[in-house]
Amino acid sequence: MIDVVFQLVIFFLFTAQFGELTHTEIDLPREPGEQEESAGKPTFVLDLNDRGELYLQSEPITLDAFVALVSREVERSGGPDAVSIRVRPDRLSRAADLNRVTRRVADAGLARWSIATAPPNGGAP
């Protein structure tokens, strides 16, 4: 019985680790950003690479599909205040691509979003 419990504990530890590693490899902009971590994790983490392509949990997604997903989540959660987005732009991505994403998300009724950055000294984000 103890062996089964230990195996379950090990299984859950490994799966919890993999859940955090589902981001696309992105070279984040080097900016100080907020010094305090925002309360809670964002509802969505959207990656924007240097070619203007979007990825959600390491899977490619179109902007239209992402906006539809956000709209459904806003309806499901009872309002835009319960949904937040963190955009992880590559530091070589164009500002126009980031503006296009934020404009479409704002048009869908969502006002809570943030941009992920890396510390200027090259430390971990």
Short description:
The protein has 125 residues and is an alpha/beta fold. It contains 3 helices and 5 strands; from the N terminus they run αβββαβαβ.
What do you see in this structure?
- The mean pLDDT is 79.
- Strand 2 and strand 3 form a beta hairpin.
- The chain is built from three helices and five strands, in the order αβββαβαβ.
- With 125 residues, the protein is α/β, with parallel strands linked by helices.
- It has a single domain, classed as Nucleotidyltransferase, domain 5, CATH 3.30.420.
Taking pLDDT < 50 over at least 5 consecutive residues as the criterion, the unreliable ranges are none
Counted up, domains total 1
Quote the CATH topology: Nucleotidyltransferase, domain 5
Write the CATH architecture name. 2-Layer Sandwich
- Spatially, the strands of the biggest sheet line up as 3-2-1-4-5
Please bin the fraction of helical residues.
25-40%
Approximately what portion of the residues adopt beta-strand conformation? 15-25%
The gyration radius over C-alpha positions equals 17 Å
The count of DSSP E runs of length 2 or more, i.e. the number of strands, is: 5
The averaged pLDDT comes out at 79
Order of helices and strands: HEEEHEHE
Ends apart, CA distance between termini: 41 Å
Look at the structure and give the CATH class.
Alpha Beta
Query: Shape from CA axes?
Result: globular
Contiguous helical run count: 3
Q: Main beta sheet, described?
A: 5 strands, mixed
The secondary-structure class comes to alpha/beta
